[in-house]
Amino acid sequence: MSASPPSYGSDQSGLVCGYLFGRTPDGKGVPLDTDAARDWLKVREQHPEQFVWLHYNLANTASEKWLHEHTALPEEFYESLHEGPRSTRIELVDNMLIAVVNDVLHDFSFDASDISTLWLSVDSQIVISARRKPLKAIDGLRNAVRNGEPMRSSVALLIHLLRDQADALIKIVRGAISTVDGIEDNLLAGKLTTQRAGLGSLRRVLVRLQRLLAPEPAALFRLLQRPPAWVAEIDAQELSQSTEEFSMVLADMASLQERIKLIQEEIAALTAEANNHSLFVLTVVTVLALPINIIAGLFGMNVGGIPLADAPHGFWVVVAIVASFTVIAGLVAFRRQRGQR
């Protein structure tokens, strides 16, 4: 018996899910399989009142081949699939919206590697989305459609996705704020138990999230100023609002980064102060031990003429001399330390 090829959570064509919508206010998505989607694509011109959403898993190598054979996506879409990490952008290409959206994985654990990319192509009748790893925002959109949430247009799917992504980002920011609050409370209570490396890692992840998730302003500005003719005015307005909401979340993330930076500087200052205090104590101990070491070295020489060698109270005289020098050295050291404060 021959083993079946791996599906990677999709069917043989790479389709994870597909839905057919009607352009009505209460139009709910009807599930589509690969065969039904292929048949609809052949007669799409006969149903201008309908649009479909097809979601693919690029980990299945059959996905890209199927899209080449049955859709007319622009080459820019396929080129973007093989680009390196870039910030979120939405561009107009051949009267289609090509979107590259970065999102976090389901098991996001504040690690820079837990960020992946979702690619979308949107026109008046077809929404194609593709990803290599399961992402929070797209699966949130999938669950909403599965639960019967209506979508009035193809652009409404994109808007819903951006808002789901903003919601996921808000949860991440809240989790980071909770972590930073705990660190700050411990710092104010004088409990310097947090390592700067942990804060540094959190800050690097937030910087990467902000860099990848922030929409490219130039392309987005051009799109919002001159949307394609098939985009309804209400969709253009809501797309602008969703990007503004997203920008506000990114602004909160930037302020959180500055807060983490200040806490890092405070921890560094406290650590430096603790190190200086330890170094001062070590220096004082060394200075206090210096007189007795010098005198012991001198009196330990086996040569003639050592003073007080025959005196009955010579030992106590030497002890008094050593104690006097030690007290004088200690007073000088502590007075200088008090003056520096």
TrEMBL record:
Principal cellular location given in the protein's record: membrane
TM helices/strands, residue ranges: 279-301, 313-334
Subcellular location: Cell membrane
Superkingdom classification of source: Bacteria
Coiled coil stretches, renumbered: none
Keyword Protein biosynthesis among record annotations: no
SUPFAM superfamilies according to UniProt: CorA soluble domain-like, Magnesium transport protein CorA, transmembrane region
Keyword terms, alphabetized: Cell inner membrane, Cell membrane, Ion transport, Membrane, Transmembrane, Transmembrane helix, Transport, Zinc
Gene3D superfamilies, alphabetized: CorA soluble domain-like, Magnesium transport protein CorA, transmembrane region
UniProt membrane topology term: Multi-pass membrane protein
InterPro entries: CorA_cytoplasmic_dom, CorA_TM1_TM2, MgTranspt_CorA/ZnTranspt_ZntB
Family per record: Belongs to the CorA metal ion transporter (MIT) (TC 1.A.35) family.
Protein name: Transporter
Source organism (scientific name): Duganella aceris
